[in-house]
From TrEMBL:
<dbReference type="Pfam" id="PF16314">
    <property type="entry name" value="DUF4954"/>
</dbReference>
<dbReference type="InterPro" id="IPR049208">
    <property type="entry name" value="DUF6819"/>
</dbReference>
<dbReference type="InterPro" id="IPR032533">
    <property type="entry name" value="DUF4954"/>
</dbReference>
<dbReference type="InterPro" id="IPR011004">
    <property type="entry name" value="Trimer_LpxA-like_sf"/>
</dbReference>
<feature type="domain" description="DUF4954">
    <location>
        <begin position="42"/>
        <end position="485"/>
    </location>
</feature>
<dbReference type="Pfam" id="PF20683">
    <property type="entry name" value="DUF6819"/>
</dbReference>
<protein>
    <recommendedName>
        <fullName>DUF4954 domain-containing protein</fullName>
    </recommendedName>
</protein>
<feature type="domain" description="DUF6819">
    <location>
        <begin position="585"/>
        <end position="734"/>
    </location>
</feature>
């Protein structure tokens, strides 16, 4: 049966901190008084003010415990009940207005228990507000319950004095069996979540992460909930153990419990109608609207949940949007888009700049003997319409999947690939380099869009948005020998050569065929192994084109890093350029740590320092991210130099002016091709008769979708190309690269 306790009325509003947890010599308000920083000088009521309050149908268990500021107006307090110590700032004869909601300053028809209020607040028809510290200019209207418990944690994964470990809230990311669980905390970055979920074999490291989280807070009981300046809360039902920043807007929420809502004047957060949020952290500038359900979650800054989305045991990175769908047990890096009611994402690590189409089912908890499968997808992951994927699967960067049911596990290491089912031949088909061949417009526009939409104010982690970066280029580099190997195998099979050969020998055969652009390659049926957990064939198409495209992209990647290096360091001569280049340029593994690309060796050092106690808290980890961001440009340049040396055997530290000039001019050719493909991939939409058939005239189509020649992104890229050419020619002159010297030789 329900246990309903009965206590004396005169104890209501007192003894907030149970006596076993009240430090010796302290009263129940000692933490509250530390939290109040409004600078208001409070005083006792005068006899006249008490008389007015009583006349206005107000009651208090003890008028001596109702403290007010000098500018208090008792006429603006009507039909309210006060219990415990209540402190009120200025009440002046104004009304506050926000989004056409107009309410007079003051307290009306409300029950207030042991709270502090700043100046000129509106508390109107709040049935119950208990143990809150409310800022200046706050509007609270038509709320059922706003309360804080003595053991409130505001969504942080900590314990208070006397609590047992089984009440701690863990967020079960990446795997439904809770094997990668982390503790959420206010300020947790996607990189923090990644490190905690990824390195599960190091118990000492995991214990340190737990210690870092507990160290950010204390276990004392008795902290009050807070509502920041100028925050508006209207028509909400239950707010319990909620910490709210300034300038937030909460309207019509059903229930918010054990949550921190970060908000500020520069990045205000809004929670709308029908939302139910439990055990979570919400970052700055977020939007949650229309029936959202989120439980055990982190919503990073400037992200959105809308239209009934369900986010459970998941972390959603910055600048992301999830609408209408269900996301479970997932760690999602920044710039994720998922807009459709019938998409489902479960037990996945999605590494950013991703887009989930309607009907996509990425992972399922019903397709294996135990719900312990996972999916890992690199940056730029795009499962298309009605794609169904099975755990475990893994994808290189910028994988796009065509409509279909992929019934077995996939491991696709080729980047920028289109993956599709050929049901007529019962085979998996992979087209590496698809984005550059057929959808350059979307690839380039998305890269620009993510930069434009990065609204973060505090950019602790330097996010990488370029489609050519250490992660994707490493994918390109590992693809070249794979493509050569598969080509060599196909040629040997065609020739009927059954001689047993090593992988290196097979790769060498394939490289000769591809590097010489032997026409026979286009006649081969190139099959891959290890891409799918099935016995059906996996066919690689456009092998020759992809192979040379990937090599060209490696060269282009280097030039982009060179240009950035020259601009940043104001390089003026060829000699100065060579001298400034990093001396060590060995290609090394990189990790995508929450959208920030960091050398694996640096992450290993970080982990050792954490375990050894030299890095002592999360702030120090965040300082590591900042330092890695400062090192990134030079490390990326060294990586690009190593990549070009690996592919073309060019040592940039010894490159003549002629080679540098050739590199720069080659980049113009690549850039021209990219801009041409940006235009052509969009122009196809205007030439497609099936797209045109819904319009009577071309003029009608242009009115609806806009003229191709007016496309702002295409015009922007075309203008950027002309500026790029001009910059390259000026750079050649500036660095005096026209001296006689070796020329660049490419395959």
């Amino acid at each position: 049966m329900n246990e309903i306790t009965r206590k004396p009325l005169n104890s209501l509003g007192y003894d907030f901190i149970p006596s076993p947890y009240l430090p010796k010599g302290k009263d129940e308000y000692y933490l509250r008084n530390k939290q109040v920083k409004n600078g208001i000088h409070y005083r006792h009521l005068s006899a006249y003010e008490i008389e007015v309050l009583v006349r206005n149908r107000n009651t208090s268990d003890n008028w001596n415990n109702l403290l007010v500021s000098d500018a208090f107006n008792p006429e603006l307090v009507q039909n309210c009940k006060f219990f415990g110590l209540v402190r009120i700032g200025k009440l002046e004869p104004y009304y506050l207005e926000y989004h056409n909601l107009r309410r007079p300053v003051g307290f009306y028809n409300s029950t207030v228990i042991s709270c502090d209020f700043g100046d000129n607040v509106v508390v109107d028809n709040v049935n119950y507000i208990s143990h809150y510290i409310v800022g200046n200019g706050v509007i609270l209207v038509n709320c059922n319950e706003i309360a804080t418990t003595d053991h409130s944690k505001f969504g942080n994964g900590i314990l208070k004095e006397g609590e047992s470990e089984n009440v701690r809230i863990w967020v079960e990311l990446c795997n439904e069996n809770a094997g990668r669980s982390i503790l959420a905390f206010d300020g947790i970055l996607p990189g923090d979540a990644f490190l905690w979920t990824y390195f599960r074999d190091d118990d000492n490291l995991l214990n340190r992460f737990k210690e870092f989280t507990e160290k950010k807070f204390d276990a004392l009981r008795g902290y009050y909930g807070t509502i920041g300046d100028r925050t508006v809360v209207k028509n909400c039902k239950i707010l319990k153990d909620v910490k709210i920043g300034s300038d937030a807007y909460l309207k019509g929420a059903n229930k918010i419990k054990n949550v921190t809502i970060n908000s500020s004047s520069e990045a205000n957060t809004q929670v709308g109608e029908g939302c139910e949020l439990v055990n979570g952290i919400i970052g700055y500038g977020c939007r949650l609207f229309y029936g959202v359900k989120a439980v055990r979650f982190v919503l990073a800054s400037h992200s959105q949940l809308k239209y009934g989305a369900r986010l459970i045991n998941s972390y959603l990175g910055e600048n992301s949007t999830i609408s209408c769908c269900e996301v479970l047990n997932s760690l999602i890096f920044p710039s994720h888009e998922q807009h459709h009611n019938n998409s489902f994402l479960c037990a996945a690590l999605i590494q950013g700049q991703s887009n989930m189409a309607a009907g996509a089912t990425v992972g399922s908890n019903h397709n294996s003997r135990s719900p312990d499968g996972e999916i890992i997808a690199g940056r730029g992951f795009w499962p298309g319409l009605c794609v169904s994927l099975k755990h475990n699967s893994k994808f290189a960067s910028y994988a796009i999947l065509a409509k279909g049911d992929y019934a077995t596990e996939l491991n696709i290491p080729l980047p920028f690939s289109l993956i599709s089912n050929d049901l007529s031949k019962d085979q998996l088909v992979v087209m590496p380099g698809y984005w550059f061949m057929y959808n350059m417009y979307a690839l380039a526009r998305n890269s620009w869009k993510y930069i434009d939409r990065d609204k973060r104010i505090d950019k602790i982690q330097q996010l990488e948005f370029s489609f050519l970066a250490p992660d994707s280029v490493n994918d390109l580099l590992q693809s070249l020998p794979l493509l050569a190997k598969f080509t060599g195998k196909a040629w040997l099979k065609r020739e009927g050569n059954t001689k047993k050969m090593t992988d290196d020998e097979i790769i060498a055969i394939g490289q000769v065929l591809l590097d010489t652009k032997d026409p026979v390659v286009n006649e081969l049926v190139v099959l891959a192994d290890g891409f799918e957990n099935s016995k059906r064939p996996v066919r690689i198409i456009k092998v020759m084109k992809a192979y040379h495209l990937f090599k060209e992209l490696v060269m282009y990647y280097l030039v982009q890093q060179l240009l950035e290096h020259i601009r940043t360091n104001n390089i003026k001569t060829h000699e100065q350029l060579i001298e400034s280049l990093p001396s060590k340029a060995a290609r090394a593994p990189w990790m995508n740590v929450g959208g920030q690309l960091i050398l694996r060796s640096e992450i290993d050092k970080l982990n050792k320092q954490i375990v050894a106690g030299r890095i002592k808290d999360w702030d120090a980890v965040h300082n590591f991210y900042v330092q890695q961001g400062k090192n990134y440009q030079m490390e990326k340049l060294a990586h690009a130099m190593a990549a070009v040396r690996e592919v073309f055997d060019i040592n940039l530290k010894k490159a003549s002016p002629g080679i540098i000039k050739s590199l720069l001019h080659q980049s113009i050719t690549t850039k021209e091709w990219m801009v041409k493909e940006i235009y052509e991939s969009r122009a196809k939409d205007y030439r497609n008769p099936f797209r045109k058939m819904v319009y009577e005239t071309t003029e009608a189509m242009n009115k609806v979708v806009g003229k191709l020649e007016d496309n702002s992104f295409i015009k922007q890229e075309q203008k950027a190309l002309e500026e790029y050419k001009k910059d390259i020619h000026q750079l050649v002159t500036k660095l005096k690269l026209d001296k006689p010297g070796a020329k660049l030789k490419t395959a």
